Amino acid sequence: MVNVRRERYREDTKAEAKRIALEQLAELGVAGISVNAIAKRMGVTGPALYRYFKGRDDLLNELIRDAWRDLAEAAEAAVAASAGESSPDRVRAFGEAFRTWAVTQPHRYLLLFGTPLPGYHAPEDTVLLAHRTMSALLGVLPREGGAAAGPSTLDDQLVAWAGSRGEGDVPPAVLLTAMRAFTRLHGVLSLEVSGQFGPMGIDPALLYRAEVESLILGDSEARGSTRLSGPG
Amino acid sequence: MVNVRRERYREDTKAEAKRIALEQLAELGVAGISVNAIAKRMGVTGPALYRYFKGRDDLLNELIRDAWRDLAEAAEAAVAASAGESSPDRVRAFGEAFRTWAVTQPHRYLLLFGTPLPGYHAPEDTVLLAHRTMSALLGVLPREGGAAAGPSTLDDQLVAWAGSRGEGDVPPAVLLTAMRAFTRLHGVLSLEVSGQFGPMGIDPALLYRAEVESLILGDSEARGSTRLSGPG
DNA sequence: CACTGTTGTTAGAGGTTCTAACAGAAGTTA
DNA sequence: TAACTTCTGTTAGAACCTCTAACAACAGTG
Questions:
Q1: Could you list the residue range(s) of the whole structural domain that residue A182 is in?
Q2: What's the pLDDT at A2?
Q3: Which of 65-104 (B) contact A at CB < 8 A?
Q4: Do both B35 and B83 map to the same domain?
C-alpha cells in the first residue's frame, strides 16, 4: 500500500501553492509569482516549496496546464449544454463560453495566449489539453462538403494535423472554418484582455458578437458594410 | 545656448541602452531585460543607468513607445508605396507590411500586443502612435455608404472614437471594417508569434493570407466553405 | 526498535531593483 | 582664470528574488 495519506497531503500543499500563485498572477502578472512569497504566505520558508516544484518554471507550467484543462472543460460544457440546438446556436454558445472564460479571468487567458514564457515548449499532455477546446469547436460546426477549402498546401496541413489528433474524418473545409473562427474570436479577446480597447472607448463585447455572427452568417452581412471590393 | 553636446551624448547613451535591451528582449523576453546587465555590457556600473531612466519600467515604456512608432512607420510606408493602386491591393500591402513587421521581430510585436506590463497605462503620446497604424489602415479602405454598420451602440462608440482622433469624417461602416480587419489580422499573428501553430504543423502565412483575402472579398468565398448556416 | 524516505529548517551564493552619499568632470558665468 | 552649478559616474547597502547544500525532525515500514 502506497502511503495515500502523504500523497493527499502533498496534493493539498501543491494545490494551495497554485491557488496563491493564481492570486499573484491576477495581481501582478507572471512576474509577480514568487515561490518565496507563496511559501511565506503558507507559513513555511522559501526552500520548502522546492520539495513540491522543481523550480519556479515547473510551477508556472502546472498553472498553464491547469488553465488549458479548465478552458477545455468550459468549452465542452457549453457544447454539451447546447446539444440538440442548431449549429448556429451552438456556435454562439461556444463563443459566449469562450469569451466568458477569458474576461472573467484575463490573467489566465493571457497565460495561455499572451506572451509565452521564454523557452517554453508545451509538453505533449498540455498540447492535448489545448486541443480539446478546438475539438469542442469542431463538434458544433456543420459538416459540409469535402471540396477544397483553401490553398491545397493549407488543406493538407489541416488534414494532417486533424489526423494526428484523432479527427481524421473532419473535412478540410470544416477544419479551416474552425481555425478561422478561433483566430477571429481570439483576435477580439486578445485585444480586449490586453486592454487595447480601453483608450478607444469601444465595447469589445459588441465587436466580439459581431464576429461570432459573421462566422454564422458566412459573413453575408459583409455585402452591407464589411466587403472591401465593391460591385463596380 | 543649451548644451547640445551633453544632449547628444545623453541621447546616444539612452539609444545604446535600449539597443541592448532589445537584444535581451529577443533572447529572454521582458523578464530578461535587466538594467544591471545592460549597464555592465555598456562598461558602467548598474546605478549609472538610473541617470538616464527613472527605473526599469521607464525603460520598458520607452521600448513600447519606440515599437509603436516603428510599426506605424512601417504601415504608413506600405500605404504610401501603394498609392494609386486599387483598394484591395492596398489592403494586401498593408497586411503584408503588418505581418512582416510582426514575424521579423516577434518579441516587439508581443511587447505591444502580448501580455501587458502589470499596471501599465499607455500615456497619451503612445496612444497617438498606436493610432497611426489604425489610421494607415483606414486610409486604404474604400469609403462606402453611411448606412448603419453594426449595433447602433457600437456605431456610436466607433464614431466617438474616430472623432476624438481627428477622423470624424470616416463613416461608421468603414470604422467597423477597419476594426474587424485589425482584430482578424491580429488574431492570426498573435497565435503565430506566440507559437501556437507550432505543434499543429500549420503554416500561419497561408491562414493569414486567407484572412486578408476574406476581408477583401467581403468573405464571398464564405459561401463555399466558411459559411456556417446553410441555405436550408 | 531500527531503517528509510519525506519534509522542513538554516546558511549562503549570486542575481535583481533602486536609493543615498560622495567624487569628479563638464559647462557656465563673473 | 576662478568660482559656481549641473551632470555623470562611483561605492555601499537595503530588500527582494531563485535555487542548492547540509542538516534535523518527522512519518511510515519491516
A1: 65-223
A2: 58
A3: 87-88, 91
A4: no
Residue B1 has pLDDT above 80, yes or no: no
CATH number at B13 reads 1.10.10
- Count how many domains chain B has: 2
Indicate yes or no: strand C within 7 A of the C-beta of B200.
no
The verdict on a CB contact (< 8 Å) between B207 and A183 is: yes
Residues of B in contact with A223 (CB under 8 A): 218
The predicted-structure confidence for B131-145, as pLDDT tens digits, reads as follows 999 999 999 999 875
B48 and B75 fall within a common domain:
no
pLDDT of B223 strictly over 60: no
Whether B55 sits with its Cβ under 7 A from any strand C atom: the answer reads yes
Mean pLDDT of A172-181: 94
Q: In strand D, which positions have an atom below 7 A from any protein CB?
A: 7-13, 16-22, 27-29
Nearest to A218 among B88, B182, B227 (CB): B227
Q: Which nucleotide is nearest to A3 (CA to C1')?
A: D28
A15 and A73 together in one domain: no
Integer Cα distance of A130 and A117 in angstroms: 16
Asked if residue B232 is part of any domain, the answer here is no
The answer to whether residue B229 is domain-embedded is no
A47 and A75 in a single domain? The answer is no
For residue A144, being part of any structural domain is answered with yes
Q: What is the ipTM of this complex?
A: 0.92
Tell me: do A48 and A70 sit in the same domain.
no
Residue A142 falls inside a structural domain:
yes
**Are residues A214 and B219, on separate chains, in Cβ contact within 8 Å?**
yes
Are B222 and A227 in contact by the 8 Å Cβ rule? The answer is: no
Is the pLDDT reported for residue B57 higher than 70? Answer: yes
| Nearest residue of B to residue A92, measured between CA atoms | B228
Q: Encode pLDDT of A190-202 as tens digits.
A: 999 999 998 899 9
